[in-house]
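Reopening this one. Same input as before:
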Amino acid sequence: MLRARATAARAKDPKKAMKRVLKLVFGERKLKFAFIVACILISSFSIVYSSNFLGLFIDECVFPLIGVEDPSWAPVIASLTQFAAIVSISVVFNYLLSRTMVGISQDTLYTIRVDMFRRLESLPVSYFDQNQHGTIMSRFSNDTDTLNQFISHALVQLMQSSITLVMVIVSMIMNSWIMTAVVALFALLTMKATSSIAKRSGRQFAAQQADLASVNGFIEEMMNGQRVIKVFCHEDQSRSDFAALNEKLRKSMTKGNTYANIMGPVTMNLGNLQYVALVIVGAVAVILSGGAASGYTIGLLAAFLQLSRSFSNNVNQISQQSNMVLLALAGAERIFELLDEESETDDGYVTLVNAKMDESGNLTETGEHTGLWAWKHPHHDGSPVSYVPLRGDIVMRDVDFGYVPDKMVLHDISLYAKPGQKIAFVGSTGAGKTTITNLLNRFYDIQDGKIRFDGININKIRKADLRHSLGMILQDTNLFTGTIKENIKFGKLEATDDEVIAAAKLANAHGFIMMMPDGYDTMITNNGESLSQGQRQLISIARAAIADPPVLVMDEATSSIDTHTEALVQSGMDRLMANRTVFVIAHRLSTVRNSNAIMVLDHGRIIERGDHDDLIAQRGVYYRLYTGAVELE
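Same output, byte for byte:
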């Protein structure tokens, strides 16, 4: 079973990926970033204040009242009131921090998805030929989801834990450098352990993302090919292939999450050992100092223990979030790889414009839709802009082409098609028929030779305008979720209902459409799975008809239609092809008999050319194909 395998590795440059993520999140939100930092500072100060408050409360409020017959509770109430006020402020700012980060994360993800889709729309056809659709989809789903988790949760946690950690360390040093040294020793042990675990988990998380993309791509491929799978009784093999991919994903996820789950217990238990060590050291210090106000006190020990607990918790938080960081950065790099893909280049400067004929018979540009089109051709030599009528005159001269530079698939292709002529390509699979039509659309650019459209080199024509002048009816019909009317109007978005109906009648699709439950408003889903292959093709022909292009490319357009349906379509197709330049690729040679010229291709070369009668008279390859002496593959 064919399937593409994802090749993503762990983040190649985590620092660069992190910088790009932070720029996306805060680059244009400097005020919000300042507000977030302020919230974190207030929250971190509250945590440190709470720990120190405990020590002062014990030493200054609790111990002085022990054994006093008539104690004054005013200092106690004042201290508790101050503590409650600071904690309440911290709660409010923590709430505002969470709300702000949720908004920022969703805005960022919205921008990323828009940018990704725009980039996807700008990429050349070759990108989609070389990348599995499921793998591309995983960047919109899995990778953006992990990035969302990082931005909305992990990022603020890292910032808050880091700032709190700095404040806690400063406070610990001010309280006791001896006990701070104990904390530092355990911190080094914790960093050593977490660094070792994170290094291993990072590799596994990157492998997990790649394996997940492979599984998603395989599932999509199997869903699209269910009919083929069932026809060839390939269910068992498909399940076996899926099980192998799923097992690989299970292993990478197990390893990655095993390391991730180990990290928490390791840091937690080291923190507990640290707590025990501090109690011993602190108790000894209090005993030796005799509890003097100038030395170690019970309150100071209690405060330091709270600070050390806060230190451990924040180190633990940073350690745990490091896994999310590694996973998010691996996903972010995959997203940035898509965003950094080179868009389809377009150096064309000749554009297609609405035109009208003035009194002198000259073409001039107009903003109105006149039904007359012209190529607007600026000249670099300073000559006035010229307007060339759009006729559909195609010339290919000495064209060589290869999908990869060192392997040519077309060799020395030369042909011409005058306006209104029908040119047919015949030959076995892989002969280069579809490749020629791809070159007319500039889905790919030629290595050598010239292709001229109405006397203009197509490299000078802006791609969007070139493609607007061409209509294509393909063997593999693509219908989009929406009504039948909307699918037909895909060829001309501003078309009226009358134009839609006229196009459907031209393609002989009107009859079956009116038999549908809601007629032209019948919803189509899943690429028109409720329609027959012939009905789907008729809709695609109507879609091409409503665009009314001067040049029409038909790539096996009737190969999926039965003979009866083909007869119904042929009359409409003849009307559609009238006064247009038409390129036809067909296996059914009966559909190309009336062509003005037939090109017989073999291994990327034109080996015979002429009309039907000429080629029959030559008694060459076409004659043998037509008479059945040779079968088209």
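So the earlier flakiness isn't reproducible anymore. For the record, The longest strand covers residues 394-401.
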